[in-house]
């Protein structure tokens, strides 16, 4: 019998291989320009590090529509666009540790093929022609690993592309990097035993969020014009949901959580496979809503249901995007969820909501208060569903390598430096199938109640319609210090209800304005810990974001309404 | 402590109440005209029993569109239409025992209200104005029981209407009866300890099928112009799926199994609640495809997703109905599944498929063979999912009344006459949540494989498209004698894959043509038992039907293609 290779050896070999996939010349040039760890805000670094020339900076700072237009007009080649983003992604990697698989050769070869096609035919191959797209580690690309943070999955390259990869490439997208995730995918921060921790480029002492934390950091630094993340909703021990939205909010990007099955998931690696009730979904992160919309329309127009049996057979609906069911967007009624009764948002979060409310009122929309309904019960339901079989799932995967299951995201518990506690996640929460069904039944009833609750707002909006969209925090806090995330009830509830939710960055923490407010009563221990955790200095420069929440399978309408919210906010900025 | 009432007492009191809900005068008039039990084919009895006059016969034998047209034009009133169907439903009840709740007073009052509205405004209230609709027992109507065959649920009237009931009534439908089901809903025959057994009107020694067997018998006798059934897919002990389609095929009606969530299910009683993986669906049974289409369009146009969070937000798509994705229906390529490798169909079933093939070739369509992929594996998967928690579910429900769980559909084991074996359904098949996830994961992979398999047919159709629809048996046998159903793999596989499937009646068993064919090799014991069970005399006059199968959420296209199949078949009838 062959001696089993120690998991630490496998992990460090993988990390060495990763480093070798970056051009040595770039690393050398960056080596002398790397900021010290105590330099927290590194957002401006890609502009000043010297690796990118003026044209490369212009390319990487273009928005998605202009980028596509300039490639489609022949002004820029797919090759030079890709090369520019490869460089900038490496800068982002050196600053925040956001990447996993790096495959520039493959990317540049496919960009060249696109240019060749364009030269020959004068036509683009599809609506994403020449657009570099980054992928969360779990999206399978043929020939590359999808470790999803597990040592057990090292050296196990994907045999075939995920359906989404097939679709993106058929539309001309250039895939070039995969991005970091937490071990198990089920954490709202990003750290694992192979690639380590991803930091927040706005303040490296803060988390980038998770589980799509690599994407959040990369997109925020413009190391990729558009990224694919995933949004699931629940972490075993503490029931903290992992998502697209938390990294978007932490890092200051836009991000969309579509409904179950709107974006094809087939062929992706995942945790808790076979859990058919609260489905993980794929969705885009980007620095503008334009990009989110473009991605969604491109994917849906490719009829993903002909390749993924779980992709919903629903065509892109332009009337819904034009807000046909929302009075054509003329006088919308938004409702603000200020406080979900589980955790009270920190001062910067409330300021973000207030600014959004004012901005919308200023352009003639209505804004009322949203009354939350049983958010704690809903949150507990999905937590029970995830924990029903999670311990066995994690055990089965980690047993292969012997790697321990990470117990905390706190830096001092990093297993690469100090051995974690021997205890495994409790399986005390494991359920029988019948018990699981009882929880799932309860959740179905809560979904029915919530829908009626929403419909009933027709009596208070004055528009003749129920509330058009809910505005709410993405989390009770802006990006917390590493390991300090206390809760994520403001995202998890929408996973449970399968509502479409879009994150819009609003502002950043300002130590002068966002002072701590006196509070003496608390909903629960988490709420208290959350309160005690807050002080404006710790959260300096952290982005502030809001969520725009619409109903199930209403991606078009949520994009349309979010554009209105975003424009209103931008109109009031100095 | 109050003495617990014996379950037999509760059951017989309920049955007595049911009888009291039928006008005594009608019962008296029918009493003298009831055919003896050995009169098997009772299809012509409603015409000759004398309870319905000429106009009532004309009304009850109209197809759905003409019926709606004549009410909308004022030629017939909703009241007289409803009254005629009430009478005919009672005839059907006396012949086949197909009803559960009978609520003629409520129906006639709501018909009168519709007539009043029409008289005042000259307008119909909706597209179903004045159409009586029967409901499978599980569809909750406020104030009425939904026992779904369980004594425990007697005297437990629904507090609110199911979402579908709200929608149908808002469109002007008149609900008037609920129909019989098997105890647990999970049998492909129809018998329970409260209402007893439903018989097949074509041959009362045969089953009406199940679990929508009451609907099958009622619609076949034209005791209702349109009925709502449900289609689930699995019976614990023997894994025999219960459906809309088996009763449709057994009784000779049309029936549609839509995809998960296309018709709102919220507010219905059900078995195995919280089982979120292989979802039960509601769908229509009718004597024409017109009626199925009308029902689906009316329901979808009512935006059920605003009332049921699990209803898919997908509007009715007329382009899909016009077969935009299928070459506008000009040269379709159908593929016939002659044999699924699990059970070989009986001679009449094969004759039905051959007739369909010839009819389609005659009008210029292509017909190739369908190669089944892993049907046994797929079938086993959904069986494991159902049995994962079913024993506990049945125990929990029956414990309330002490009623035993029915072990067999054989008449000689009827618990009302002889006590059943003391043994309960085995919980040896019960799973943990994690084990259930592993089965669900396997099923997801099988769904992906099946979709690729279907897509790959693009190379053999010659149309430039994959196969447009699969034609296949509804079961390996026509309606078997009571208790003799051996398998239902030809329906269950499509529940597992969530494909849209429509049943079309083709012919009836002809003892001269459908002779037994010599076979010596068998796939398995069920296949052998199925073969040995067949002889043309036993199955005399049993309807022969086929299924037209399309993809998930393609109800519009399946309706469109089924109309083409149906017209082709009708064109060749003498």
TrEMBL record, chains A, B:
Residues 80-559 form the Amidase domain. Keywords: Hydrolase. It comes from the Eukaryota. Pfam families: Amidase. The keyword Hydrolase applies. InterPro entries: Amidase_dom, AS_sf. Belongs to the amidase family. PANTHER family: AMIDASE-RELATED-RELATED. This is Amidase domain-containing protein.
